[in-house]
Write the structure tokens for this entry.
Amino acid sequence: MKHKIILILIILCVVVSAAVLIFETANSSSIKPDTVEISRIKYSVEDADNFFSFSYDSKYDFTVVSLDGTVLYTTLETRHMSLAERVNQAIQNYDTVINYEKSGKVEGRIIIYTGQFLSGNRTAKFTAVIVPFCVLSVLLVLYYLYMRVYLYRPFKKLKKFASDIAAGNLDLALPMDKDNLFGEFSESFDLMRDELKAAKQKAILEEKSKKELIATLSHDIKTPVSIVRVAGELLEIAEKDSKKLAHIKTIRDKTFEIDRLVTDLFSSALNDLSELKINVKNVESIELENLIKGADQSSKVIFTNSIPECLVKADPFRLSQVFSNIISNSDKYAGTEIEVSFDLIDDSLKISFKDFGNSLDEEELALIKNKFYRGKNAKDKQGAGLGLYICTSLIERMGGKLYISLDGGFVVGIVLALS
């Protein structure tokens, strides 16, 4: 507020000075010579009997010229000029020219140099106005520069900083300047940024831990549920009592429902896969075979050949999730046997899963790995459309590849790099 008042006062002074300057310039022509002194000069000259002994002390210089151009008397040094030339020059210089008379007869002209005196007065008045005007203008410019450096620029930085904070960019610190008028305010802004950044990082870690916990629990729940389902199937085969058989069937059906709900929960937890840790290490090929057997809860997997002895780069925990997802999807949508084959290709191990159910159309292959995409054969099936998207992301983060093809059935291939 203080700076604003000072700026208004300076602008007001400049406007007033400009108005005075314009007024004085417009009215400079109204300044007139001293007529009383001019009359005294005229009477003194006309009363003089002899110009050789004539003397008159006046604030104006003057020259007496006869009609033939002879200088009769002058208070200034002068060069030879005709009367007409002197009169013209006097008019141009705004001097006063009056007749010199003797006994009622015009004897010549009296040229009184009032123009120079009036010009000096005008110059003094003009200087008295223009100097303050220039000084105030310089002060105004200096004040503007001061406001721009110490007020406008820091405020602009604060504005940009606030925009960055609103956009979620919490890594850029606000530059501090001891001469900044917003010093303490700027420091408070930067402290707020630090607190927001810490809170954001804490929220990310908490969300990450939550997702990992859900994913871990979902995977762990699947194993006991599968055991209950298998036990129910065995009891269903051996039981003859119809009432008990109905209860056993209910138990078996509920295990499928629980498994489906846990799968959806697991898929939701893995929606943001970049938050999940991948711990790649050297894994023996026989362990991969055991992981596939552990994921085969419906006993649909058939190994068409033996797995070659080798070491691959993989995360066993995440790989078991991938195998479970692929096998459960095949069981859900195809319901047929699943052939699993192994091939060593260059520096990698290829694992192929092939079922013989209602395969996808050819044009759907390019879309089936996209997030939330579900094929035409999934209309009456529950799910989120995340299974193959999740598998693809996890395999790629292990340094491998996942591909899909139609080759006498639906084929999901996994390629893992050899150690």
Observations:
- Residues 382-386 have pLDDT under 50 and may be disordered.
